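Could you help me review a protein record that somebody else here produced? What it holds is a sequence and that sequence's fold in token form. I need someone to confirm that the token line plausibly describes how this chain folds. Take the sequence as given and treat only the tokens as open to question. This is what I was given:
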Amino acid sequence: YARYSKFVVRGVLRNGDLLNSANVICYLSFDRDEEYFAAAGVSKKVKIFEFQSLMNGMVDIHYPMIEMSSRSKLSC
């Protein structure tokens, strides 16, 4: 966890209605090769995104590769 000492914005995840509180992301985790990341939150869904598609800022909305539902909120 001591690999980085500061945050730099490299990309912005655009995944739908930004004003909808159900889109709040509480957890974010990368796979070991840093090719994919998972985002989870109060929407009761875990969404898997491709990291390089996030870095390519040419799209208006980022769609997940896979989306899994949960019975409970995944909140902070």
About this structure: The chain has one helix and four strands. Residues 21-69 form one domain. The two ends are 19 Å apart (CA to CA). The CA atoms of residues 6 and 64 lie 27 Å apart.
